[in-house]
Design brief:
Elements (H helix, E strand, L loop, with lengths): L2 E6 L3 H14 L3 E7 H9 L6 E7 L1 H10 L9 E7 L5 E6 L1 H5 L5 H21 L2 E3 L1
Antiparallel strand pairs: 1-5, 1-6, 2-3, 3-4, 4-5
Helix pairs in contact: 1-5, 3-5
């Protein structure tokens, strides 16, 4: 598996703000935000459910990773998806950094990935909802 997630009920914007706050509590900032729903509407004229990709970054951990392996930026940042489901619930899905960063196949990077994963798991826990692995 390359992700883990939680499913929530409530207002999408409020859930997104709670998510950003929980990420901040774990040292992550949002570098990028891609509103896939709006892009598909604008570029293809498609009506889709809400779908955003947030590029989350913990600067000290990203710096360690880049110092250890300069090309690791190809695997960064840690993407988090917020999407509306057909039943009205909201899924928050996290890229599993251990699954992705293990592509590098180095012990020092594996340790960093484990730390990032534990932080993202705490974010998922802070969000509540029903967890999905």
């Amino acid at each position: 598996m390359y992700s883990f997630s939680t499913r929530l009920t409530g207002n999408l914007d409020e859930i997104e703000q709670k998510l950003i706050g929980a990420l901040k509590d774990e040292g992550f900032g949002i570098l990028t935000e891609i509103d896939v729903q709006a892009t598909l509407k604008k570029k293809l004229g498609l009506e889709k459910r809400p779908y955003k990709i947030l590029g989350a970054c913990n600067p000290p951990l990203a710096n360690q990773a880049i110092d250890a392996e300069p090309d690791i930026g190809l695997l960064l940042p840690c993407n988090v998806v917020i999407r509306g489901e057909e039943d009205g619930t909201i899924t928050v899905a996290f890229m599993d950094p251990e699954a992705v960063l293990n592509l590098v196949d180095r012990d020092d990077i594996a340790e960093l990935a484990k730390e990032v994963r534990s932080r993202l798991l705490r974010v998922r826990q802070a969000m509540g909802g029903s967890t999905i692995d």
